[in-house]
Write the structure tokens for this entry.
Amino acid sequence: MKPAFSVILLTTLIGLGQGLFLALFTAQSYALFDLLPKQDGRAFYAYGSLLALALLVAGLAASFFHLGRPERAWRSAAQWRTSWLSREVIVLPAFMAAVLLYGVFHWRGSPPVLTVLPGGITIDVTVVLGIIGTLLAFLLFVCTGMIYACMRFLAEWHSPLTVINYILLGGASGFTLAAGYASLAAPELTGFFGGWAVIITLLGLTGRAASLRRNARLVPKSSLQTAIGIKHPKIAQKSQGFMTGSFNTREFFHGRTRVFFFAIKWFFLLAAFVLPAGLLALALASAAAVPWLAAAFLVQYCGLLAERWFFFAQANHPQNLYYQAVS
Amino acid sequence: MTQLALVIDLNVCVGCQACVTSCKEWNTSGAAGTLSDQNPYDADPTGTFFNRVQTFEVGEYPNTETVHFPKSCLHCEDPPCVPVCPTGASYKRPEDGIVLVDYQKCIGCKYCSWACPYGARELDEKQRVMKKCTLCVDRIYDKALPERDRRPACVMACPTQARLFGDIHNPSSAVSVAIRESGGYQLMPEWGTQPANHYLPRRKTQLRIHDDELERADNPRKIDGKLPKPAKSEPSLDDVTSW
């Protein structure tokens, strides 16, 4: 498939926003049980939510560039019964609303207390919003992943690993960003976020390596024989019906050399997983964590852009069987 | 239930591209808007087409066969492009099984083109919506046309009648008979999309000639040519030489 830069930005940016929100609420949940020091709502959670919201808005804005008719985008919420894309279109704004409310209640301070649990744990409205936001964040990951995983013709995507990797890669980048954010806003949480970022990054490496391994062993279900229905072992295309390009030759080929393709693979394995894990470890060990964390975040985000490019480019659409030779 | 479809006879198609141009001519002239072209008279011309004819060489030289293969939307009975559409612009008509795109609702997200294993859908670069073969839905029901013209433009144009059009759910229709009796098949059956359009395979047309057909029974001297005139009383097996 041809990787569209708008979709690469959309999926990486909202994954980052979702991961950051999950990181923030994880810290709040730990603090609720006195496992982490409590943070000021306005100084830490409100600005953090704002950052997550800004990433989600940027992702949503990028998605419009993928549409031929962006002015009709509102129509895309209609078919939620059958289309994962439609479900994503509904869940994304719902999640953004949850993040916004979560941030607003933290900003206003002293959020209304809903109930007090037996152990003296106060459940206020931000906890409920955080739980709703967490559920929506995971639902959004599932929707985004299923947009690709439900495409049974694209065998490289048609696997639970696609959804798992969207969750892990979004989570990894979000926790890395949270570590960087905490190093500025709440230094005592840097170790917590950084530690989880390393763990999720390594889990992401495992998941992505598993999907690379799976994809390397795929046997295409369709062949030129089934495509045109002629059962002869030797069939060669002599004409695809036109000399220059068409939608079919533009949309379904990445248009790069094999060398570039494999270079991107090794680049993203290094930049999205190995280097950030190393940089995060360095940051946790060193006294001045901020530059290391900034480097880890930037390298990982570039790596994830490459990862998403490779994700699209690797998918081999069966329609390509019909476009093997110009004339 | 009706399922309109094309049945394309690969044994007859000569790859003349008449269906391609006829399709383009009809569908670029309709009320739904043009099938736009980019750089039509320049380097790298490209444009929207509903129908293409491709050519494949089957076998190894010198034992090869050239197969011309017309390719358009197959109007699947279980179309994978329809449920993925987020807006409902892509739909299958229950009354005749034609898969259509509502150009007023389509947002041009291209997701349906990813979901079609046949590559039947194209984004029109000018209108910015997805387009595909409509089975000339604006023609086949047009009461202003004479009955024999209420067929898709490609079918009308085919000089060898390689394209049949009809209801494949009606067991007595010409298309159903052709599918049943000439080994009609579907493309990529492994995906379970049940394409409505079928293709008829290449057939070997062989003439069996027996020796006695080459050699006349009443030609005892093995000379095929002017025969001695038999006497009127003599019996003959051959009508031509007897009188």
Summary: Chain B touches chain A through 60 residues (CB under 8 Å).
